[in-house]
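Project outcomes to date are best conveyed with an example. Our students and postdoctoral researchers have been running inverse folding experiments weekly, and each run begins with a structure described purely in tokens. The record below, which covers 468 residues, was selected by the lab manager from last quarter's runs and is presented without edits.
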């Protein structure tokens, strides 16, 4: 079967960029730029163990040795996370921060973008000029004119969802929130926080919304407007809800444009979709109200952040004058991180659309290869077309799960092939899984789990279904 000759099957990508920017390592108690030896340590096949709790406490400074002690603790922490960076394959974070060395001097300043991005602060320490540059880029991507959109750089996808759904509720105060059961937990949180009437929509086996169930619930609730959360890249299976099918369903059920509001949660795959075929385009030329992405996911940023874009004609529903900050506020949070717009601006400007397209293609191809390898090894698996998420059977050993920092739901786990997940990391992971799995199931007393219900019988290779 040749399952261990894996290297050749993944497209190689350079590790050197990230390694060249390894964080500070300590030598003899002082910080230095890490080089050379660290690379070897990061690429070794046997993963370093999961990091242990350092049980940090705050103690009053006592002597001048204290500074060295603090540096030492920081160094230990940095060393641990630097070693673990190539084993970060279970959560959607792009850890290629090629730009952080250039931008590091910025952390000396408190940059705060409190309030409306389009209204300058009364203090100089903000980055709203960068923020508006980033927002303009996304407005262009999602086809809405500069003078017709409003948006802001959020603290992440969750804040974007909280904002989009709140705006939907303000536009349609007695609207019912519809979301598939594979939606991110922040959507259910929004329903709870805003005390909204909620309809959960069933999903298909691939994680996509079940449009027939949506239609039957839309018809049942015909007297009330609909606020619909559309997920472009579901959290666990990476499925993309079909925006066009949802708009069509609304029309078929007799909902006119003023009776619905669509929020697109594109936190995970918003920057993959523009570069793939057969997925409905996200565009404000369609009757949508808002779109959000997470900035630290596919694009990559060392701090959590996101982008939220909506229609300018709607935002007055949330805007309030705030004399204290001499601004208008329509955001969720008060103080906002002024560093993240600069990181996003820098990432977009250095990668460009061509760079993002290359990242998307490579991630999708590597995800498909990983799925094929799982299949070849008789491991239950599923991968949505154009997706970067590969779902597979939950590893039996908790230590293995922790070692590879995997997220597990029921009997499933997943790998999310982000731009920072190298072919070497996938290779090491696969080898490790195959070797360990052979041990878990060697004497036949335990069997791999059945995933027919979660992934469909065709994707299940449990002892019952592999024989069908
Ligand atoms: C589909 C989806 N929406 C929203 C979020 C929340 O994003 P964040 O973690 O940036 O708040 C996630 C995070 O995984 C997600 O997968």
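After processing, the design step wrote out the following sequence:
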């Amino acid at each position: 079967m040749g399952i261990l000759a894996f290297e050749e099957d993944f497209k190689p990508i350079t590790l050197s960029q990230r390694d060249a920017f390894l964080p500070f390592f300590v030598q003899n108690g002082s910080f230095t730029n890490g080089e050379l030896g660290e690379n070897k340590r990061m690429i070794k096949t046997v993963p370093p163990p999961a990091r242990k709790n350092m049980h940090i406490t705050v103690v009053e400074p006592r002597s001048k040795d204290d500074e060295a002690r603090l540096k030492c603790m920081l160094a230990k922490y940095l060393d641990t996370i630097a070693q673990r960076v190539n084993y970060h394959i279970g959560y959607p974070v792009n850890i290629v921060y090629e730009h952080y060395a250039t931008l590091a001097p910025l952390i000396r300043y408190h940059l705060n973008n409190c309030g409306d991005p389009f209204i300058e602060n009364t203090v100089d320490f903000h980055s709203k000029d960068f923020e508006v540059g980033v927002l303009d880029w996304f407005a262009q991507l999602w086809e809405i004119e500069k003078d017709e959109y409003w948006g802001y750089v959020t603290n992440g996808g969750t804040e974007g969802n909280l904002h989009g759904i709140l705006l939907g509720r303000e536009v349609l105060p007695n609207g019912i929130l519809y979301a598939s059961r594979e939606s991110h937990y922040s959507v259910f949180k929004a329903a709870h926080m805003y005390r909204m009437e909620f309809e959960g929509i069933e999903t298909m086996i691939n994680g996509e919304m079940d449009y027939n169930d949506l239609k039957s619930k839309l018809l049942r609730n015909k007297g009330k407007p609909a606020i619909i959360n559309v997920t472009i890249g579901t959290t666990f299976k990476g499925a993309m809800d079909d925006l066009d099918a949802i708009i069509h369903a609304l029309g078929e059920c007799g909902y006119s444009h003023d009776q619905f509001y669509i929020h697109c949660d594109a936190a995970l795959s918003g920057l993959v979709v523009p570069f793939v075929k057969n997925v409905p385009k996200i565009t404000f030329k369609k009757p949508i109200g808002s779109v959000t992405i997470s900035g630290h996911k596919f694009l990559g940023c060392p701090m959590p952040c996101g982008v939220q874009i909506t229609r300018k004609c709607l935002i007055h529903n949330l805007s309030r004058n705030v004399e204290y900050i001499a601004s208008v506020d329509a955001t969720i949070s008060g103080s906002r991180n002024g560093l993240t717009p600069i990181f996003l601006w820098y990432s977009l400007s250095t990668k460009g659309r061509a760079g993002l397209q290359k990242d998307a293609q490579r991630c999708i191809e590597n995800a498909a290869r990983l799925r094929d390898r799982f299949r070849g090894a008789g491991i239950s698996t599923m991968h949505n077309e154009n997706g970067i998420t590969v779902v597979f059977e939950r590893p039996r050993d908790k230590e293995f799960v922790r070692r590879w920092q995997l997220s597990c739901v029921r009997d499933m786990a997943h790998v999310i092939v982000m731009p920072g997940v190298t072919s070497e990391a996938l290779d090491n992971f696969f080898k490790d899984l195959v070797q360990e799995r052979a041990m878990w199931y060697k004497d036949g007393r335990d069997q791999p789990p059945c995933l027919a219900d979660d992934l469909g019988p065709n994707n299940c290779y449990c002892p019952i279904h592999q024989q069908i």
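DSSP finds 14 helices and 15 strands in the chain. The longest helix spans residues 340-376. The training component of this project remains on track.
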